[in-house]
Amino acid sequence: MSSVTSPPRGAAPATTVRKRGLRRDGFWPWLFVAPLVGGVAVFFLWPIVQTAWFSLTEFGVFGGTTFTGLDNYKTLFQNGDLYKSIGNTLIYTVITLFNVPIAVVVASLLNTPGLRGAAVYRVLYFLPYVAMPTAVAMVWRIIFNGDFGVLNYVLGWFGIDGPYWISTPGAAIVAVSIVGLWSLIGFSVIVLGAGLKQIPPDLYEAAELDGASRLRQFRSITVPLLTPSIAFLSIVSVIQGFQMFDLLYAVLGTTNMNPTVFDSMSIVYLFYQAGFVTNEKGMAAAIAMVVLVLVALATVVQFRLQKKWVHLD
Amino acid sequence: MTTQLSRRNILAGALGLGVMITTAACGGDSDSGSDTAGAGYTEPSADLKAKLTYGVWDQTQVDAIQKNIDAFNQKYPGIEVAISVTPFAQYWTKLQTQASSDTLPDLFWMNGPNFQLYAGGKKIDPITGPVKAGAIDPANYPEALTSLYSLDGVQYGVPKDMDTIGVWINTEIFKKAKVDVPTADWTWDDFQTAATAISTALKSDGIYGGAGGMDGQTTYYNTIFEAGGSVVADGKSGYNTPQSQAGLQFWADLIASGGSPTIAQLTDTTADQWFTSGKLGMYWGGSWFRAALAGTDLEKSIQALPLPKGAQQATVIHGVANLVAANSQNKQAAHALQAYLVSQEAQQALGEAGSVIPAFTGTQAAFTKSMPDAGLQVFLDAVEYAKPLPVSANTAAWNAFETKLLPDAFSGSKPVADVTADLASQMDAALAKE
Amino acid sequence: MTELTTTPARTPKRRRPAGPRRNNVWIHLVLSIGAVVMMFPFVWQILMSLSTNAEVQSVTPHLWPAKIQWGNYAEVFRQLPFLDQLRTSVVITVIRVLGQIAFCTLAGYAFARMHFRGKNLVLGAVLSILMVPSQVYLLPQYQIIKDLGLLGTMTGLLLPGLFSAFGTFLMRTAFLALPSELEEAARLDGANPFQVFWHVMLPLIRPSISVLAITSTLWSWNELLWPLVVTTNSDDMPLSAGLATLINDRTVNYPIVLAASLLATAPVLILFIVLQRRVIDGLATSGMK
């Protein structure tokens, strides 16, 4: 694995240049970030600050706050639903994370020189990503149907008696994760496709001259040079995994329609339930802050880890 | 008249401004003194000019509503009404956002479970004025239903439409199973017997006897009322009583006997889907289900029956009301539209448009005529013994406990009495917070 | 292994041997199986949009409609002001995508390649907005738009969507992956940072900008809750919100909803097909190093 961790020798001068370039850029960076940071501060950061405050209050349905200190957090941490929802969210996140390795394989296969129909494949893999989530969910519900669904029909060929996917605790979150995985692959293929285009073709030519097999080229050139994109996708997948809500709602239905939703709840669903259904807005704010801290921790860990394996020129 | 009117508008505007400032000062906790505003209603003159927004959640009713508004504009050509459709799934999120910012539509749809939240939050202008002025007479609408829209003795609106629950029957399946179609005076036992008989006879076809949506409104609230129990009474849960337990046991027995698909099957494929696919003999459903049947192959073999009788006869009644926002800048015009939409003339037209049953007593004939052989009259006759949908100030809080806990009782994985004890204590805690 | 990655830079450029090879068969096999899985729900959606509601609702799935119901598509146009909503969707999407590209490339460049005090803190703050449930922003953003007097306007509808933390992160990643020689050379030639950004670095990340364009287009095109909450008239709604109004509480006409969603998806899909050569193969000609 040495080639993964140590940058190619050819890039060595760049590193020294970068070291030399460790300088301050004066006011320029601030000019560059100002428009974005301004908008973000007004429309996004300020709401987060407000939410942090609301999490310490009992918040009326239509406004009006009473300071209650850490009460919301105390109630929340005593509630088993929180841990269950974190568990479900982790299951979802881990399963959907597999979109990245799948997409690496698909994207590099699509990048095979002279592959006919690559453009068609790209469109087909991209379809799930463009499709409207509500429409997609309707179709998946039919596929997952325990009595009449295609999935259990196909499983039957192999002698497997499939469960009632969307109404069995445990199976339901897996069903939702499968849809999530399915819809993410297209996006990752696109991102990795762009990353692959940045790999100079000479690398492969040289490898071929050296008699390296395709598999070897994949392991020693493609994967290492894709690591920045892979790292990006992993971080984004984890962040999105923690935000999962719409899909659960669309595939499983509301709590009224499907009692399994309570067992399959994601942490953002818990937030939504408190904030918009049962009208405990202070509690909802506290859940939002817990989500923020969890995702921030996960992201920091990933950033730390990626220094070890991401190949940066 | 015109000058007087405009002076009042200015006053109202000034008052509104004052309200906004106070609101801002005390962090959005608004009290607009709406009672006085509502009480001062007089019928507007025909040349009143105003722009109203009317918030609704059902796209299929828009054509009928537009007809009502066109007729209203014959009388008030200066009042422009824009219909704003938001799907039900997002309607309440949007309404809450608007209420929190005092930007509610002038007139908007409300349902029973959410009403007390908004009325208690002073977001709605009562109809005290229009009633006093004779523009609305609550006596024209089913009493059980108007009671849903009053809080602490103040009436905030009257229903514009209504629905009750009955049993939809596929006579073709009864014929095939060689089971006699029940009659209107049937009992719980008759229902259970017919359900198991059909399931047994047609097992090889995958056809079941009877089922419901397993939500309160169309199934267990009804059987609880029929057993003489209650869901919520005097700020307390009514679940942990022998009567209510009997109402829940009805469904547990039905599923245990095989007369109904299991809970998991009913989640994957909803009861109405089982029914419309011709795989269910009897379906507990609302009068609104008519729309799903009209024009299908199934229509010819449909028969509607009142709910089978338990210790007593009952059904759940519910309906949507049009309410005027407390923050509306055009309250007079909004109340005028509100009053018109529930007038006999408008209700008659609404009924003829066919998507819902109007609430005004005596305007509902069009509904029964829409499927003349199905005996839809039972849904109207049910008004007599109907009970309002159980609600409280924060209905959704305990609804969540029902949907979370009750399935265990229905599936038989826990005894009904254990579940009701648990449910009642959690529900009481939620109710105590109101 | 290290040997492999060291030689290339000096190897003369030469086209890789093109054309089918023996193991392309396996590649096709793998890709086709995957493609079937990927497109199956979509194809089914098309078939269901051409069925009757009874067929869609039927518990034994009908794969093929008994009679093709083209009328479902006509019904969409009858129920929705489709062209008005299409226009709104196009306008807000174009403005947001351009805005996101402008703001995100600038900020992403600064975060990736410049040095300033508090950089990581600011970046962390920007990224943190991805980390809370998006519904958190609904009420505060609504109130800001209201206070700005922009409720019911197109500006109010599109304003918060001009700023994307995701896009900034994507652009930062793209800039990070670039070699620094060119940048340094330009600097030594006396170009100011903006000139370096604009003339040297920005062209190099064209493929990633395309990715941002695709993702922000799709996000803007499919966004649901915000447009539903800030618009009142169906004429002012984008398509995503408009077609959600077809999903009724109790009696949903599924074929109509599916037909409408296919109609709404079609423009972005066509855009992607048309652009994909430029988009995906964009860099092939723009010359690395």
From TrEMBL, chain A:
Record-given protein name: Sugar ABC transporter permease
Transmembrane segments: 27-49, 90-111, 123-144, 164-192, 223-242, 248-272, 284-305
Family: Belongs to the binding-protein-dependent transport system permease family.
Superkingdom field: Bacteria
InterPro entries xrefs: ABC_transporter_permease, MetI-like, MetI-like_sf
Compartments reported by the entry: Cell membrane
Family matches, as CDD domains: TM_PBP2
Domain ABC transmembrane type-1, chain residue ranges per copy: 85-302
Organism whose genome encodes this protein: Kineosporia mesophila
Recorded topology in the membrane: Multi-pass membrane protein
Keyword Membrane belongs to the record: yes
Keywords annotated in UniProt: Cell membrane, Membrane, Transmembrane, Transmembrane helix, Transport
TrEMBL record, chain B:
Pfam families linked: SBP_bac_1 (PF01547)
Record bears the keyword Ubl conjugation: no
Lineage, uppermost ranks: Bacteria, Bacillati, Actinomycetota, Actinomycetes, Kineosporiales
Domain of life, source organism: Bacteria
Annotated protein name in UniProt: Sugar ABC transporter substrate-binding protein
Main localization, broad class: other
PROSITE patterns: PROKAR_LIPOPROTEIN, TAT
Subcellular location: Cell envelope
InterPro entries linked to this entry: Bact_solute-bd_prot1, SBP, TAT_signal
Organism: Kineosporia mesophila
Signal peptide: 1-24
Family to which the UniProt record says this protein belongs: Belongs to the bacterial solute-binding protein 1 family.
Keywords: Signal, Transport
Database matches in PANTHER family: ARABINOSE-BINDING PROTEIN-RELATED, SN-GLYCEROL-3-PHOSPHATE-BINDING PERIPLASMIC PROTEIN UGPB
UniProtKB/TrEMBL annotation, chain C:
Keyword Transcription: no
Ranges that cross the membrane: 25-47, 90-112, 121-138, 150-175, 256-275
Annotated signal peptide: none
InterPro entries, alphabetized: MetI-like, MetI-like_sf
Domain ABC transmembrane type-1 intervals: 86-275
Alphabetic keyword roster: Cell membrane, Membrane, Transmembrane, Transmembrane helix, Transport
Taxonomic superkingdom: Bacteria
Annotated Pfam families: BPD_transp_1
Record's bilayer topology term: Multi-pass membrane protein
Primary localisation category: membrane
Subcellular location(s) of the protein: Cell membrane
Family membership noted in the UniProt record: Belongs to the binding-protein-dependent transport system permease family.
Protein name as catalogued: Carbohydrate ABC transporter permease
Organism this protein belongs to: Kineosporia mesophila
